[in-house]
Design a protein that fits this description.
- With 270 residues, the chain is mainly α.
- It folds into two domains: 87 residues, no CATH class; 142 residues, no CATH class.
- 59% of the residues lie in helices and 4% in strands.
- It has eleven helices and three strands.
- The chain has a three-stranded antiparallel beta sheet with strand order 1-2-3.
- Helix 1 packs antiparallel against helix 6 and helix 2 packs across helix 10.
- The chain is elongated, with a radius of gyration of 23 Å.
- The N and C termini lie far apart (47 Å).
């Protein structure tokens, strides 16, 4: 039995570490250098108040949290413009069926002709919409977003390594707990330190070399986000409407100060 636990621990450690190395190498090879200046072609309602990074609100949302974050941003943006009503029960209702850009028009299309739909369903429809894919394609071309071929990317691989470290620890505990009374388990438990050193060591290297982990933004994309290390942008100002949207784009619904909007985005809509 101890050998079985050791085999499980070693397998989890080696596999997760190999996947992390593969993800890091794939991202480095697949992502072209980002250009110094990137022009946005998709109209952005906040373009006039765009941070010094040059990213639009939609681009910041995609780089920070992918297409679902972008969907949350456009829904809240339209709610602030009184074009949508987002109920804390999880329903989106059209108030003004006029979109100012392709993504807003996609949101209206996702809600449908009845003018009302559950927010999770709207979000899921937006994720696969052509307007959102164009934002992703443009960022990938500029070298700011991870290509689909290397996702879930380094972030997912690091989480696998963290899980493997926990598996190694639990395997060692199970070996000690199931040992016969009076048995010398010290030598066996010592072997568990090898996969644990491997996982924790690679985790530490990834924390130093690859942090912040992102499944969506490349290193160049992370540096373009406002408030990040090496960014040319400036931190947002939560007191202003544009600042609250930037905070939502960067941090997600948890950053919203309006409890009804937070409840709407987190609701299942049932």
């Amino acid at each position: 039995m101890p050998l079985l636990f050791l085999l499980v621990a070693c397998s989890a450690a080696v596999l997760s570490c190999a996947l992390l190395c593969r993800a890091a190498l794939a991202a480095a090879r697949a992502v072209p250098p980002a250009p110094k200046a990137a022009a946005a072609t998709l109209p952005d309602p906040c373009a006039a108040e765009r941070p010094a990074s040059g990213l639009t609100l939609y681009e910041m949302a995609y780089l920070s949290g992918g297409p679902q974050r972008l969907a949350d941003v456009v829904l809240v943006l339209m709610a602030q413009k009184r074009r949508l009503l987002l109920a804390d029960t999880g329903w989106a209702t059209v108030v003004d069926p006029v979109g100012t850009d392709a993504v807003e028009r996609a949101a209206l299309t996702a809600i449908g002709p009845e003018g009302q739909r559950r927010i999770p369903a709207v979000r899921n429809a937006l994720v696969g919409d052509e307007a959102v894919r164009r934002v992703a394609d443009r960022l990938e071309t500029q070298g700011l977003a991870q290509p689909a071929a290397v996702r879930p990317g380094v972030g997912g691989a690091v989480r696998l390594v963290q899980g493997a470290a926990l598996v190694v620890l639990l395997s060692a505990v199970a070996t000690y707990w199931m040992a016969a009374p009076g048995a010398d388990t010290g030598a066996v438990l010592l072997w568990f330190t090898l996969p644990q050193i491997l996982t924790l060591g690679l985790w530490a290297v990834a924390r130093f070399e690859l942090h912040p982990y992102s499944d969506w933004a490349t290193v160049a994309g992370e540096r373009r986000l406002p408030g990040r290390a090496g960014s040319r942008g400036t931190p947002d100002v939560p007191a202003t409407p544009s600042g609250s949207l930037i905070t939502l784009a960067l941090r997600g619904p948890i950053a919203l100060t309006d409890p009804s909007l937070r409840a709407a985005l987190h609701s299942s809509g049932a």
